[in-house]
Amino acid sequence: MLQRVAALAWRVVLAVGLVCGVGLLPWLTRTDPAYTVLKARSAEREPTPEVLADIRRQLGIDGGPLHVLTGWLGGLVRGDAGRSWISGADVLPDVTRALGVSLLLMGVALLVAGLTAGLICARTLRLGARRRLGGRRG
Predict the structure, then answer these.
(1) Are residues 127 and 114 in the same domain?
(2) Domain containing residue 116
(3) How large a percentage of the chain has pLDDT more than 70?
(4) What CA–CA distance (Å, rounded) separates 85 from 90?
(5) What span, in angstroms and rounded, lies between the C-alpha atoms of 57 and 31?
(6) How far is residue 82's CA from residue 69's CA, in Å, rounded to a whole number?
(7) What whole-number distance in Å separates Cα of residue 130 and Cα of residue 134?
C-alpha cells in the first residue's frame, strides 16, 4: 500500500514539474514573450519598449515567470485554465477538444497495435492451443 502511495506521489510530482516546465517555456527560450506575442498578433508593428511594456501589462507577465506560473496554477485549481495570449479566448474549450481527438487517436493506435500483435502471434497461439509446438511434449 505504501509503495502505491509513493508511486502516485512521484507521478504527481513529475506531472507538476512537467506543467511548470511547459509554463516556463516562454521565458526559457530566451526570447521576450511580449516580443513573440507582438509578432504573432501583428508582424509589421515595431517592437518599441513602450509597445512591449504595454503587451506585458495586458498579459499580466510584467511580474515575471514565477508570478505568472503561480497565478496560472491558482486559476487551474479553480477550473480556470487561462486565456490565449494571442486571441484572448478561453483555453479550456480548445484543450478539451484537443484532448478528445488525442484520446481517439490513442484508442485507434491501441486497437491497431493489438490487432497487429494478434495477427503476428496467431499461428503460435493456435499451435500452442492444440499442443503441437515443436520440441517437448507434455
Answers:
(1) yes
(2) 91-138
(3) 96
(4) 10
(5) 17
(6) 11
(7) 12
